[in-house]
Amino acid sequence: MTMKTPSGAALLKPETLLTHERGGGARTTPLVSRDLGTTSFITGYTSFDPGVEIPFHSHNCQESVVLMEGDAILDIDGLEYQLKPHDVTFIPPNVNHRFRNLSKTNPMKILWIYATPEATRTLTATGQTNPVSAEHGKH
After folding, report:
1. Strands, DSSP E only, in 1-139?
2. How far apart are CA 133 and CA 119, in angstroms?
3. pTM
4. Spatial CA neighbour of 67 closest among 48, 92, 54, 95
5. pLDDT tens figures, 3-53
6. Residues ≥6 apart with Cβ < 8 Å to 3
7. For the segment 106-122, what is each residue's pLDDT rounded down to a tens digit?
8. Close Cβ partners of 75 (under 8 Å, ≥ 6 residues apart)
9. Is the CB of residue 27 less than 8 Å from the CB of residue 21?
10. How far apart are CA 97 and CA 109, in angstroms?
């Protein structure tokens, strides 16, 4: 459920929002998007099943990620960084990275923020680029 105020502000209840399967044990719930009128950023949650890792990729804009639940590894610059809940990352544009759920038994959840509604994801292995919003059924 999304409630809009007279000024255009919004209150979102994530448990009532549509979640999209990304495949491979990852699911995304868009939060702030163009639908709310944003012109400068988008946000959402991605949940990872136990042991899931997403492929190496990069974005055309700055990204910040907050680990909300679980234990994660950030692979970036050829190094591994262990993350605990509430750790925050900043990733510049065009930097290859990925997140992995360190646990084999518990889920992991991140809050992501992209610095533009036109954010793209380029898969490192294939070079394929798609809008992040394509994962949400919206382009």
Report:
1. 2-4, 10-12, 20-23, 26-30, 42-48, 57-59, 63-69, 72-76, 79-83, 88-91, 97-101, 108-114, 120-123, 129-131
2. 8
3. 0.93
4. 48
5. 999 998 999 999 999 999 989 999 999 999 998 999 999 999 999 999 999
6. 10, 11
7. 999 999 999 999 999 99
8. 56, 97, 98, 99, 100
9. yes
10. 17
Amino acid of residue 130: N
CA 131 to chain centre: 12
| Residue 119 token pair | 């954010």
In the block, which residue shows the tokens 């209150």?
A: 11
3-state helix, strand, coil in the chain (%, to 5): 10, 45, 45
Place of tokens 């190094």: 79
Tokens 């925050």 correspond to what residue? 88
Retrieve residue 113's tokens: 């923020």
Could you give all domains of the chain from N- to C-terminal order, each with its CATH number? 24-136 (2.60.120.10)
The amino acid that residue 34 corresponds to is R
Residue in the block written with tokens 């990069």: 58
